Amino acid sequence: MLKYWRILLLVIMVSASLLAIGLKPQYTGVQVAYVYSDSPAKGTVQQGMIISEVNGKLVQNSEEWDALVKNYTGDIKLKVNKNEYKFHVNNSELGVGIEVNDIDRFNLDFGLDIKGGTRIILRPKENASAQMLDQVIGTLQTRANIYGLREIRFLPIRGIGGDYYVQIEASGVGREIVDTLLSKQGNFEAKITKPVYMSGGKGTLDLGDNKYTIEYAGNETITVANQTLKLNGTFVLDDVTFEFVNITSSGDIILFGSAYRGDDIELVYTDAQHSGIMPGKNYFEFYFGILVSEKGASRFAKITSGIPSQLDLNSGDYYLKDCRILLFLDNQLVSDLRISSNLGGKAYTTPQITGSRETRETALEEKLKLQTILRSGALPVSLETVSVGVVSPTLGGGFMNSIALAMGLAALVVMGVIFARYRKLSVSLPIAAVGFSEVVIILGIAANSDAFIWGPVLILNIILIALAWWKKYEIDPTAWIGAVLIPMFGLLLTWTIDLPVISGIIATLGVGVDSMIVIADETLSRKAGEERKMVYTIRDKIKRAFFIIFGSASTIIAAMVPLMAIGIGFVRGFAITTIIGVLVGVLVTRPAYAEIVEVGTNREKPHKEKHKDGPKENTDK
Amino acid sequence: MKFDHKYLLIIPVVIFLVSVAILVNQYAQTGELFKRSIELKGGMVITINTQERLDTAAIEAALKNKFQPINVREIRSFRGYGTVIETSSDLKSDDIIAEIKALGFDTSDNSVDSIGPSLGASFWSQTQIAIIAAFVLMGIVVFILFRTFVPSTAVIISAVCDIFMTLAFMQLFGIELSLAGLAAILMLIGYSVDTDIMLTSRLLKESEDKTLNDKLRHAVKTGLTMTFTSIGALIPLLLLNISPVITQIATVLLIGLAFDIMNTWLTNYAILKWYCEKRGMA
After folding, report:
1. Which residues of chain B lie closer than 8 angstroms to A416, CB-CB?
2. Which of B83, B115, B147 is the last residue of a domain?
3. Nearest neighbour of A547 by CB, restricted to B131, B135, B201
4. What single string gives the DSSP state of each residue in B195-232?
């Protein structure tokens, strides 16, 4: 057996690939999709691990998981990858801080164009550094998690010119969510309208302990604290930024005072006591509270001090006169509220955000989006959408079937052409089988979490080539390199199977078949005179065949390398698959095929030699 | 056979010149060497998949009132019919789909692809760099393999011919170059060089006791088997119409392989034979 060590290597690597594609360490449980940075399990539980039990109870799918851990507090026991871990959960809002998915059937990661979904590419509007991009992705991930988007992936992409992009891939997420939730920069600002009543061209800006005089200098210009301002000008007094926004018809000055910004928000309330939906006349109003910092609260006190109260005749309540709190998100007004008169001049730490929508669902959605953006914080740069791809998920099953059908038909055609040429099943059948094994190995390398398979295979391969060398079987450096390199690829590489990758597989198959034809051809086309020392000659010819094979393989790899540098995933998947496929072909399957052909011809030799004109000669004429 | 092989070169040279003329004409008319798909220039494509055929003319007429620019065409796929709406990436896909739905068509199975013009331009410049870099690298590898000027150049020339002729053919039949097509073009370099290397090594490296014609006959048999298996494998992919990506790759490769038969056995062979005769090898 050891004599045919290259065939053995192929068998080992095909089996390993089948295991890498299909074998799972565990089939019951849920797969960890994301661990929050403030989760008690951070650092212990990692993405991709399998959680099978919660407090001794079996978890089968993500719904069961959600039911078990939602708003959980106290000690929690998790069985992760068959090990027990105990964590203490003290934040009921965060819970255990782990997002999970159901376990996939195969270890293959299928692309959106196969399973359906949305691919969106965002570009920072300003120049962004790699660190900023990481920050962007962290914030986006947090938003996705808070909002409850499952199976969403964020990838940083670097273009040739050093510009950065963020690629979002998600199933079941539309562009709308990206535009209204994810790509929003999330700059939050609460501004309060501050009226300054003027008489005789003078008025007092009351900021609690300090009072400043404002003078009207005519021509929409005011002077305050030795500064002269035009309309829409800004000035800072007592740590509060003011904007001069209006002069009323009665000559009073209206200022905007900035009370809170995004970094003043310490907590966004999501519990039923502080947040909810109220039905209105023909709309639904949502509300939720936020907790702001002491600094923000004291700015609120300064701005609202010294403003007279006014009775609202409809409700009978007193409100501050001409004074409203306006909340802006990315310079868009999201909430506009009057301020109750008893809050005037007080350090108010729990302002409310409200808004209304036509239906209950849209109101809930809007509330959740705002809460999500405020909780996740602002992105360091603003983003713009530069590409959107939406694929309907119906492609899935039918698509895989037609791919299989196409592959099957292609295999039949290839076998037919080769059979027509050589009239030997012993040549055409192995070409189909070896071609198929090539596809399996490529998929086996692309499979994820397969280290526990490729690791032992690497060792097994090294033992096998060492034994073959020890027993003085033929030396073949190409196959040696393959035996070591391919399992290493298996260990290190994982990529998504999408349409370009499938095209790459088809392309390599074509090249593979071409090379096998060259081998078959060189081996079978012998002159009668060479028949005596045939084994030597076949080896010699296979060597020559390998010159052609190496030549074409290296040119293809050379042509594919520049594609790897093209920024966006599409072509890269094609290029990497083709390169790996060509390497698998040259280093593993072709040495094995050469050996198969060699074995086949040697077997035929003894009884064919009795006839002086074997049918093989026909092939050369 | 007293036939001067140099005359063989006339056919590929004429076709090559025609191809260049087509591309130059295209450039003169549109300012671009060839038509690019939206991936490479920016824009939006909405595909609506249905079992029955939709009235593309009616859809186009209805959409033209509200949306500009718009172009509606139909494709066949293994799942039935696809109505393809091409427009600018500034418009909202949901609005257009809603409009078609309002016409009474089933739009539930739809897909949208939108590329901003700046990203499209960036793809395009990267694509051009990739093609040139691929060629340079391929050329270096070929030169290292043969280490002789004429045979290496012959291999490269026939690859260049394959690509120019394929691109020109695509223009004639209105096939736009997309990222998938680009991948296919680069793949074509591989397939093209494959048979050329085989031919060259057979003619130059095979044992001395065969005549050039014997070697050629042997090489033609191998080479045609290689090319026909590839063509044979691509035809089911094309006929099944699995997805636009795979269809484009299969189409471009099929066109390219057909040209490759000519460029390997006329262009490359004629140059090699002239080279062998000069060196007294024939």
Report:
1. 232
2. B115
3. B201
4. HHHHHHHHHHHS-TTS-HHHHHHHHHHHHHHHHHHHHH
